[in-house]
What we know:
By secondary structure, chain A is an alpha/beta fold. Chain A is 32% helix and 24% strand. In chain B, the strands form 3 sheets. In chain B, strands 5, 6, 8, 9, 11, 12, 14, 16, 17, 19, 21 and 23 form a 12-stranded mixed β-sheet that branches. A 10-stranded mixed β-sheet of chain B has the order 4-3-7-10-13-15-18-20-22-24.
Amino acid sequence: MSGEAAEGAAPILEVRDLWAGTGGKTILKGVDLVVRPGEVHAIMGRNGSGKSTLTHVLMGHPAYEVQGGEVRFLGRNLLEMDVTQRARAGLFLAFQYPVAVPGVPVSSFLRTALRSVKGRDVPAREFRRTLQAAFADLGIPDAFASRYLNDGFSGGEKKRLEVLQLRLLEPTLALLDETDSGLDIDALKTVSGGIARSIEAGVSVVLVTHYQRILQYVTPHVVHVFLDGRIVRTGGAELARELESRGYDWLDAPPGTAASGPAGA
Amino acid sequence: MEARNPHDLVGEYRYGFADEDCSVFQTRRGLDEDVVRQISAIKGEPDWMLQFRLDALRMFRERPMPRWGNREILDGIDFDRIVYYVRPADRQGTTWEEVPQGIKDTFERLGIPEAERKFLAGVSAQYESEVVYHSIQDEIEKQGVVFLDMDSGLREHPDLVRRYFGTVIPPNDNKFASLNSAAWSGGTFLYVPKGVHVKIPLQAYFRINRRDMGQFERTLILADEGSSVHYIEGCTAPSYSTDSLHAAVVELIAMKGARIRYTTIQNWSRNVLNLVTKRAVAHEDATVEWVDGNLGSRLTMKYPAIHLVGPRARGEVLSIAFAGAGQHQDAGAKVIHAAPDTTSTITSKSISRDGGRASYRGLVKVHPDAHGAKVSVKCDALLLDEASRSDTYPTMEIACEDASIGHEATVSKVGDDQVFYLRSRGLTEEEATLTIVNGFIEPFVKELPMEYAVELNRLIRLEMSGSVG
């Protein structure tokens, strides 16, 4: 189902000892993560463990400050790039809770996004065809195009639109923040199908989730367990199944092992 | 970003150029009985109008300044410094060739003749105190539609004017209505006969050129039974360091089953005090819509009103206000439900940035016998930064128990999360903010004819440039 991971190829993303937080509170406490072309990484962990924070910090949300460590994306220093530059360089974040932007029609937003990311205008006819195909692919009715961006959307509609953007914008690396949460089984299948097709098309993925069920449709090459702001265990797809049956408690770090500050910060 | 005033950047006022003063006549500064008599004499008015003006002058003097809106700016107006009447040309043209070259060039720069050719049924262009150009399509004139400047209206339709002039907004309504009633000049007189539908819009354009000038146009629109019309006005002025005063009075009367839409795209320079009284009367089954876009000016105080006096009359006020640095937009709406089964919708949207201040001031009144009245008021304010300000002063006086009243008010800031979301899709910070602002005013823009929607979006983009760095 997933594309071939390029063993030994130069990494797309290298996160080294990343510390970050917000409002004086440290949330990420030394994250290390290396993603190579075509790889699918699942990051699993309890609510509140900091996995969503990781995706937001990587995308550059202004509410978070990086306190230490480094991140390279396609060989460039990601932390020196602003949000727009990150998007244009090929990084994408599918939001868990996409915000509404009332008054902005979905179609004009998508066209603007496509133009911004690709750096060229797509002719109107070509855009309409692309959009119709993408809508059909994700079971989205055409009338969606004239609705206002995420305004009054159901949870499932929002997730479909996030995956639709993933399909259209064709990033190099997609960070998927709980894209499976709040979906019924049919919606989950549709959304997962969209993600799988992006992977087949060569998109690398970091998938943040706390359920194993999406992994039935999107097979990860690597599974990480995230606990208290860092990755505490890494394994193959079997690790996800183990988490499903045993939960997270057995992985809890013994008290006192969490470091008190960023190394070298 | 450098610590420069954003308005020194590209977002500056585009229509701030001034022509040389080539006026053929003007009254001396200040307003007294002599000046009023002089204005009336120049126009060769009937005696009743002179008396109307003189009574209004007395009311203006006796009436205190409003104690709300922006007292500081209001109290700072020096009425003796203002020139109340400036005649820019000897006569009015019905073709642009007849308009003096300099003035014609100005309207060319403002795109009026081009708009007229493309999509208007008639155009009135006022420069200072007088309408210098006026035209109407033959086809519409043949249907009996009267579209004239107010002075010509008074000359050619004295009975109609005498019957309705000042009946919707009496001269003692407020200080600035009194001032207008004493010093009025220009404006539009529009009469649409029974059952006539004017399908494409008529437009009036108001231009102030001189500094220290007061423009007091006077508009009366009468839509007879079962007729409909869409009237659009636009306004600009040069940028001066001293204030100019614009105090219009606009009266609309929609007879039984008639429909009037009055659209304003006002884009005054930042030295204009815009103190306008606009009110409509809607009779049985009539509809009146005010679509009011307020950009520019230093202070705007404007509350388009609708009196729903006949059963099932409907009123709608849809407005946006954009307040930038040093600007105060005190805008709102007023609806009186005086008959059963009347409906009103008020939607007010304001955007403040760079320390600008936008206020919504509204009054909805439902009389005891207005059974089944429906009222919906929605005010949304969008603040683009911490320094800007938004206030809401809604008043509801509901004397009828079975009226249905809805009221919603929101104040939002352009959120970090919205900007982040859009930027994560490759938009720059500036593009993201503009997208959010355009979305915010979308309910307003979609009510405009396409050409005006494009123009408004362009104006908003200009206002927004340099807002983020």
